[in-house]
Design goal:
heterodimer, A: about 375 residues, mainly alpha, ABC transporter involved in vitamin B12 uptake, BtuC, two-stranded antiparallel ribbon, two-stranded antiparallel sheet, 16 helices, 4 strands, about 70% helix, globular, B: about 550 residues, 2 domains, five-stranded antiparallel sheet, 21 helices, elongated
Chain lengths: ~375, ~550
């Protein structure tokens, strides 16, 4: 019943996206494992991992779109939830190394031996069990987001103030995770992973499976996000985005709605981080950098905020551009990224998807003004 | 190791001591005391040194110095002691008493007088004792400090002698403390020792603290007196520490104020989130660098004025950049604060990369003019001139800005546009022009901050990044649209940061502060000094 409800919530475009992702999850690993090298359809392991990374970015972008596009909360700290999920996964992977580390300590990760620690800190307990670690991937970002959101939304911190304190949150976490005493590997972070769920992490088969998991998780995230925004709750969210005070006066408990979607979004970001870490093989405090979080916002803006599909397109497109530019013309990349921020906000307020819609509707019939000039009143308050 | 340093100090003292009033004993007496150095083991050597020092002869320090350097040898044939200088494989011998040449001696015919660390210490305190009666007050003071550190009971008689003749009050106090430290180390009576502790405690320095804390675990009256004295000194030093931390905090607060005050104009007064604000600071710093480069190559004599010349240059550079940004980007986005935030972030990336392309990614060296370098101390507080000037500069900029807002036509129009844009336009104020000028003013002040920051921070393309979050915290904490709030916010955060630092460490202190601000904003979403009335609704 739940499944049919979820699938019913997809519109035509959504169905295409989900089907596309499922097909990707099957075809790309097949192209890597089954198609012989040299064939035009062969996907190298490098390309596979790179695409897998893009898909986790797309999930992060989707989570940002959920709060920004549909609820008007511009989070400049979603990278923090992404990194927290990543660290939870990283801790699991560290414990899987066991005695194969440089110092061959059966319990302690190398950096702890290096710091002369004698026993595992309490917050590392249990991370040797996969189910516990995966639970933490969801719980840690979720609980932190819940606490932060409960405090902020209850006292009606909105607009740019909220943006700035989300940035302060991720900045505080960045500083905290840089400290060696915190027990998360300090500056170097967690790396040198060996196994995941008993499979060697470098093996092509494992990488293909991780790619498939990323694609399927993105599809699942997309379905859940669609279900949320198309439900009645989603309509209230949009109402909050466009006129928060008015929604409150009508009688909705605005903070509850915000808190729900905020926490859900943080959990999605955490899952994205958890899938990201085994594929890139490292997690370090730079993921908490405020500029990383702002970059995630620009993926959404490029693709088109409030469209759910847009963030997917934006994340992949911008990151593809980043990979390409930093390889060919590293000097140009920051210019290009900076220009992207300016051009998109000035000329493409609805991003690529908005542009596409305009092109399509010009052929058919004039579309209603979805950009919404009425929104300004709500946001300026 | 302190006594090696002590030794070098004392050597310097000896050199300056040479032409002092001749106080000499008979050559034969001195000679016999010197010969004693060459006989027997370390214990005998120690006694011989004390005996030699007790002569008070002005030739003794040189002998002791040569001994300490391992340049004193015994001729095996007759046991006579000489200064030895290497001459090829042989030694050139010099008589220590007369200073006359005693010819060359093959290595095998002489034996070096061996010293160990204990002997070196004995030598140091003996030399210290001898220099206590130097006619030069600076030498006497240094000698008293040296003896105090070595705490050698053997120095007590010399100290007594020196105290009796000393005329300068604080040197005498120092000598008495030195005598007290020596006394404590000796086997004097308990009452004497308690009195000695009181004498040391009067000094109140860190040396005294270090010395006395060695006695806090002693039984009886001596231990009690030491514990009391240590507690007294510690509380006194703690007060100075608090003073020092307050000074650091004030200094950090002034830096934050400089960085944030421009933001208080653009964000607080105009409501524009300018993420490129930090880059305006960076432009100011690079303008300073460029001005200094031009001065270095063309008019090196003007270097001391380079910062004064850089001020208007930095202001204009940043202000022009700000006006350009406002005209090209921000004005299309009024009323859409979140979009402004993203667009200005993009601008900041472009500016960073531009500066990186022009000046390179490495740190650039910006020099201190002579009137800004160096430091002085008030009590135990170290104050560097750079920091002092920056505090004064921050206050000056703040007051100037208040004056502009309250006393000039532009300030009046700015406030009018802020309070009610339509009404201002209706009475004939050209609001677009005022917007551009306001933004230019805020950016220009950021440029001024860059001049100041170039003196204390690395001038690199990332300079601004480090300040942007802190600046926003200051403005939000102080209350948006209120310059006095920014002042209070900057000073509070600066001082709180530096007061937390000794207890929590620099990074943890900063984290605590960030979390505190996040929580504070929950309590007072509009900051410390919120605007009241209609302006809130705008």
């Amino acid at each position: 019943m739940i499944i049919s409800f979820l699938v019913d919530s997809l519109d035509r475009r959504g169905r295409i996206v989900v089907i596309l992702l499922v097909v990707l999850a099957l075809l790309v690993p097949a192209g890597n494992l089954l198609v012989p090298e040299g064939s035009a359809f062969h996907v190298s392991t490098y390309q596979l991992t790179l695409c897998g990374k893009y898909l986790t970015y797309a999930l992060l972008a989707l989570s940002v779109d959920l709060v920004w596009g549909y609820c008007g909360i511009l989070s400049l700290g979603h990278g923090a939830f992404f990194a927290l999920g990543g660290y939870a996964m990283g801790m699991y992977l560290m414990r899987q190394i066991g005695a194969r580390g440089v110092y061959a300590d059966p319990m302690l990760p190398d950096f702890m031996v290096f710091l002369n620690w004698k026993e595992l800190p309490w917050f590392w307990q249990g991370f040797d069990m996969a189910w516990y670690a995966f639970l933490m991937v969801v719980l840690v970002p979720g609980v932190i987001a819940l606490l932060f959101g409960w405090l902020s939304f209850r006292s009606r911190v909105t607009g740019v103030y909220l943006s700035i304190i989300t940035q302060a949150l991720t900045y505080a976490l960045l500083l905290a995770f840089f400290r060696n005493d915190m027990g998360f590997g300090g500056n170097n972070g967690l790396t040198d992973f060996k196994d995941i769920l008993g499979f060697p992490i470098q093996a092509p088969g494992t990488r293909a499976a991780l790619f498939a998991a990323s694609a399927l998780m993105l599809a699942l995230g997309f379905v859940v996000a669609s279900a949320v925004v198309r439900s009645k709750l989603g309509k209230v969210l949009v109402a909050i985005r466009d006129a928060e005070s008015r929604t409150r006066f009508i009688g909705y408990r605005v903070e509850h709605y915000k808190l729900f979607v905020w926490t859900l979004s943080a959990v999605m970001a955490g899952v994205a981080g958890a899938l990201y870490v085994p594929q890139v093989g490292i997690i370090n405090p730079s993921e908490f950098d405020p500029s990383a979080s702002i970059e995630a916002v620009i993926w959404v803006a490029v693709g088109g905020r409030g469209t759910l599909i847009g963030p997917l397109i934006g994340a992949v497109a911008v990151n593809f551009g980043k990979t390409w530019f930093t390889g060919v013309l590293p000097e140009i990349w920051l210019y290009a990224l900076g220009a992207l921020f300016v051009v998109v906000t000035l000329f493409l307020p609805r991003g690529i998807v908005g542009l596409w819609d305009r092109v399509v509707s010009r052929r058919a019939k004039p579309a209603p003004d979805v950009d919404g000039s009425g929104r300004q009143a709500g946001e300026a308050a | 190791m302190s006594f090696f340093r002590l030794f070098t100090i004392l050597f310097a003292l000896i050199v300056s001591f040479q032409p002092a009033l001749a106080s000499r004993i008979a050559d034969t007496d001195l000679s016999s005391r010197i010969v004693a150095l060459g006989a027997g083991g370390f214990d005998d050597l120690e006694k011989a040194i004390a005996n030699l020092a007790a002569s008070g002869d002005d030739r003794v320090p040189a002998v002791l110095d040569r001994l300490g350097n391992g340049e004193l040898v015994v001729r095996k044939a007759d046991g006579a002691v000489f200064f030895a200088d290497k001459a090829g494989t042989d030694f050139r011998l010099t008589d220590p008493v007369t200073g006359s040449d005693a010819g060359l001696a093959p290595k095998a015919t002489v034996e070096k007088v061996k010293v160990n660390n204990r002997i070196r210490r004995t030598i140091a305190s003996a030399v210290g004792a001898l220099t206590l009666i130097s006619p030069d007050p600076a030498v006497r003071r240094a000698a008293a400090e040296a003896v105090m550190k070595s705490a050698d009971a053997a120095a007590i008689p010399v100290l007594n002698q020196a105290i009796a003749t000393e005329t300068v009050a604080d040197i005498r106090a120092m000598m008495m403390a030195a005598r007290a430290t020596a006394l404590l180390a000796s086997s004097a009576s308990e009452a004497d020792k308690v009195a000695a502790i009181a004498a040391i405690a009067d000094l109140g320095s860190r040396d005294a603290l270090g010395f006395l804390s060695g006695y806090t675990s002693t039984e009886g009256a001596v231990g009690d007196a030491a514990r009391k004295a240590v507690a007294a000194i510690e509380s006194r030093l703690m007060l100075w520490d608090i003073g020092q931390n307050l000074w650091y905090g004030l200094s950090l607060g002034s830096v934050l104020l400089l960085a944030a005050i421009g933001l208080a104009i653009t964000f607080g007064v105009m409501g524009v989130i300018n993420m490129a604000h930090g880059e305006m600071v960076m432009l100011g710093a690079y303008a300073t660098f460029t001005v200094q480069e031009v001065i270095r190559t063309s008019w090196p004599g003007l270097f001391d004025y380079s910062l004064l010349i850089a001020l208007p240059v930095a202001f204009l550079t940043a202000a022009l950049a700000g006006i350009l940004i406002e005209r090209l980007v921000i004005r299309w986005l009024y009323g859409r604060p979140l979009e402004t935030l993203l667009a200005t972030w993009g601008v900041s990336l472009i500016l960073q990369q531009t500066v990186r392309s022009i000046y390179g990614a490495n740190n650039r060296e910006v020099g201190n003019p002579s009137w800004m370098s160096g430091s002085f101390s008030v009590g135990d507080i170290q104050i560097t001139w750079t920091r002092l000037w920056i505090i004064l500069f921050a206050v000056a900029v703040f007051l100037a800005l208040i004056a502009v807002l309250k006393r000039t036509r532009l300030g009046l129009e700015m406030r009018a546009v802020t309070q009610n844009r339509q009404m201002a336009a209706a009475v004939g104020i050209r609001t677009p022009l005022v917007d551009a000028l306001t933004f230019g003013l805020g950016s220009g002040i950021a440029g001024l901050a860059g001049v100041a920051l170039s003196q204390i921070d690395n001038v690199s393309p990332n300079l601004g990044r480090g300040y942007i979050i802190d600046s926003f915290m200051v403005v939000v904490f102080g209350g948006v649209g209120n310059l006095w709030g920014t002042l209070v916010g900057a000073l509070t955060l600066g001082v709180a940061n530096k007061v937390l630092e000794p207890y929590a460490g620099a990074v943890l202190g900063k984290i605590i502060l960030l979390v505190a601000i996040i929580l504070f904003i929950q309590k007072r979403p509009r900051g410390l000094f919120a605007l009241k009335g209609r302006a809130v609704e705008a």
